């Protein structure tokens, strides 16, 4: 189950962050997402060492915590997509697919002429789409 | 190994060094105490021996040299593990001591770029204290039973030379009770190398006695083991020789005793009561002696002893454990112990056990830096312990393996693995008590990672161990982990921040508030300004809390302030943050301090300034009407020059530049600033004491230094909040309170609510005022203030056009001296009226200021709706004042009024002598006549001037606006058709339709205005002539067709009334009669007074309307001449050709006056007539008298002819046909007469008449003829009885007469056809003659009139006219646009649709026409009847 989704901008400022749990743990996810930016930076700064190919947008597992797994994805415009899940065994292909859909959703939201690049995404349509992606992921049987 | 690794190795060597147990007598301590030192402390600085060169052999006889050596000296009493609580308390003190020298001030505004280096600096600053802590922490863990590292290698027994019986003292010292407990327990080998030292205090006496004792000692304990140590050779008084730098020698090395000390104890240690510095008696010579002493002990005794020990032990171990036999034996022997339960510490090993021996061997080898030997033995031991399930010992050995591997600098991986194993086993298998050892191993591992540059791994290790630790240590470890993240490449700033937050949390959990503050502050630098608002809120909130706990409320306020405007947080959090914030402010001593609060959030950039310069507003609604509308209303009212040129422009150019962007306002009047406050939270906010912050400079000081003022003001805004406090005593604001009246507002903002608040300031003197910002009190506690954004001139744009801020955005005011101010209110102004309703309003003008004002003028943009009445109008009750009264009617000179309207544009000037003194009030009537349905904004401007011209404004205006909804009520249509019988009579049909959805109306009166026309009711036929009494008249009116039975017209119904319109001739009527005629519509019994339409407001409205209707036509050449009847003679501006004069009579104004009643019953109406009756005045102006026919003709002649047919068979009768051209065009008229046969087919003459046109005078036919004659003559008001009598009298002989005629009953005898030219408005007469042949009744209608309005003059003029009229129409539409801006729609010809076809249209439609003659009956009686 995806518990948190975040889009982070070039300046590492949060553009969109949404948790999908019932509890009041927004702060926790903020910290998790924020910290995982470090790992993204690390992966980006020395890609060879960590085995990330240059043309790959999917950054893989950023870091596992006790309860969560954090995955990252970096767009060409240095927009970071971060996913926090509770699933312990996930196939990269699935995650990659999810990210691709997020990316498409983001591109659409950013194409809105009223969206200010680098500012928070306030589009309800985007939120709607993201939550539907998250829900569809939760519903899909994980083989 | 190099760099950090070398440092770590060094540290390991220092930490794991041979331990020397010290036993000293009290007198030795006393001697040392003179230097504020203990004996051990005295020796300790000299225990690190650098630059020694000691040859050592390994167990396998490999020689090597020790270049440096370390020893650790401890009192025997200290060689034991302290109780856990003591240790923790001790460590806590260590932490406290380190936290004392933290920077407590939060550093604000650190540049982002420097963040990383700043963080590194902070980390570096914290490292030594951590290292110190680690050292102390490890010290608390020393002397455990599972390790041999801390087993003393040797013991030093020190006895003072001043002691009695020194020899026996030596023996006593090495007493069981002085020895460490570990020896007693058997974990430690009690057989130690013993060294005997005689300490001689040179202050006590000479060395001689000491030497004696030494000799004695040597004889007792052996030569080699005895030493003498002389100290205190110097004196504090003469310390020339003693180097001051020595002071630090002890301080840095001294170890505090493990027992927690009371505060006084700490003081005693740190500072000698006598104030002497440490080591004040120690001279350089003493230092050298001590150095020599320690070196001697180390080189000559300790190292050789250890070497020897290693060798013996090695041989032992080799004998028992090496070789296949031993291994097998060991295996078998160990097997027997399998039943041993899995206890955490494993079986108890005494020092004699093989395992302990091996451990000692390995530790000694380690200390002697024979790491290979140590490693092999540790490995041997680890397998043993593992088999024994002595996990703690196993872990300890693993720890040492790791260290050994590290010291050998080989197999990184393995060393780390061993450490990991150690940590795991300490944790998992050996119980809680050894958790600390796990931490110690973790620390070692961390250091090893760090030494290899693996900061990330180090951080992970630290983090992990911190989670296992449940004490203050976890915070320290987390903090260190954070620093490790900082040092990774690339630096992981966010993880650094995160771990700092965790550390901060732990610190505050364990009460280390200062440290928590410190780490949170460090963390803040990472999280701030990046939009991670949840995180920064969290950090700020905790910082605020900590500051609050540390009693640093000022900083707490600063931190909480940043948190409170957190719209993203949950409502509970919002409430929590807010209450904490308010609580802190309450607690802080700076209760009244003004803060730069974000709550409630204020739109600082969009404020709307309301001020009144020459323009004042009666209401806020008026202020919101766009300026353009007012400008159009004010056109012609205010002097034009003032609009174009600011009054300031008249001043010098210098002053102009300074004050160019100042608004003008008047002292003593409010300036309002609309500020929008919004509550971003889900919590209701109580905001009170909201007022503007202003900067005021009184007049005079600015006159000469305007530039200075502006500089001051900029400086003012840029200065900090404190300076803006009004009570701050800054120059310029000193007397602000006296000069400005600030009104405070208070309101409550609900969750998420926005509110626009009008804040007011009233300057009481002339000067320059600048509105700086707004301040408020949140929840009656927190004082906030924000400065408005300065909407200054933008820098010159490319088009070189300056973007001036709009006046309502400017916050700078030039305050002028007192000016009169008129306040206007309109009483009795309804919000909704019915169309046509007439209301009297009361305009109240009150001068609220002290100065008098004059020259009041009134102008409205709806002059047809609003009318200024006469001052006398107020004296009477409404609607009585409208009624025909007894008082002398002051007939308004209509033409003059119209003149005034057209020239002054409906500006009403109050009488010249009207001067409104300060504080006085004037009432003035206004009339409202809602002429038209719809919703209107009535914008009115009242102009006035101050009585005495001061330096200020020359005039001011008050702008009033009212919204009026007009419901449609009665619709009135008038159609006037010319009477076919009389030229001066017209038939007027009044169609009344009640359009109102609910209301019913009482019709009261129909009036007609015009000095040529009078209105009369159509009399019923039964009226007796000659009865002229008024009652009869009334009854006649009631019975007439002009009046319907009920005057009540219910909603949605129609009614048509017929009236006779009489032309009373163009001669002027007397003034008393006016030019009106009224028909009362009420029932005969009604004594309802007539409403006088010829005076007062009704007349004025009528005139205005006429002017208005005329206005578009003013430009339309001929057409405009058809004006109101009112201007018959007096018009000067327009052409007065005879043609037009004639045609002015072609229009008539008809007015219907009705009442709206609340109730239906008559009684109610009468009773409530004064209060609730509402007069409705519908006027239909300038109805064209001209019908569809442009020509009117009347055949005039005798009605009865007596002729003796016997004498003369031809009876000739003469008629006169009068043709009047009612059109405004010239006409060619053709009159044709017909005989019977040639009657045109299209004629409307009835069949009977067509066939015969003659009725015999038979008695039987007479009634029928009479009836028909009656019907025909009714309109002519000819008595039919006479006709009937005549018919009766000529009842014979008709048939034969008829039979004789072949060509028709009568013949036209003088004219067949004639053509006449009729100029517009003229009339002509044509004589006609008819010949009859027999008595009878003849219908003389066999003629036809054809006309053509196309004459040659009109053809040319008409084409020109049509062009010019088109142009003029455009013009007129333009002109109306100009005069009446938005909000007023000029009344077009909508009403015209009801009032009949427009004259032009009718003219066009009837340009050519042919009409048969009107029926005209001629009775011809034979005079010779009686003869026949």
* Biggest sheet: strand arrangement of chain A: 2-1-5-4-3
Which pair of chains forms the biggest interface, and how many residues does each contribute?
A-B, 18 and 18 residues
Q: How far apart lie the N and C ends of chain A? A: 14 Å
What ranges of chain A have pLDDT less than 50 throughout 5 or more consecutive residues? Answer: none
Rg from alpha-carbon coordinates of chain A: 14 Å
Question: How many individual β-strands of chain A?
Answer: 5
Summarize the structure.
Chain A is built from three helices and five strands, in the order ββαβββαα.
Describe the model.
The complex is a heterodimer of chains A (143) and B (1428). Chain A has three helices and five strands. The model of chain A has no long low-confidence stretch (mean pLDDT 82). With 143 residues, chain A is α+β, with helices and mostly antiparallel strands. Chain A is globular, with a radius of gyration of 14 Å. Helix content of chain A is 39%, strand content 22%. Chain A has helices at 26-45, 92-111, 124-139, and strands spanning 2-8, 14-19, 58-64, 69-74, 80-85. Chain A has a five-stranded antiparallel β-sheet, sandwiched between helices. Chain A has one domain (2-136): Beta-Lactamase, CATH 3.30.450. In chain A, helix 2 runs antiparallel to helix 3 (124-139). In chain B, helix 11 (284-321) packs across helix 13 (354-367), helix 19 (472-487) runs antiparallel to helix 20 and helix 32 packs across helix 34. The longest helix of chain B has 38 residues, at 284-321. The interface between A and B is medium-sized, with 18 and 18 residues.
Give the key terms:
heterodimer, A: 143 residues, alpha+beta, Beta-Lactamase, 5-stranded antiparallel β-sheet, 3 helices, 5 strands, 39% helix, 22% strand, B: 1428 residues, 7-stranded mixed β-sheet, 43 helices, 37% helix, Trafficking protein particle complex subunit 2-like protein (chain A)
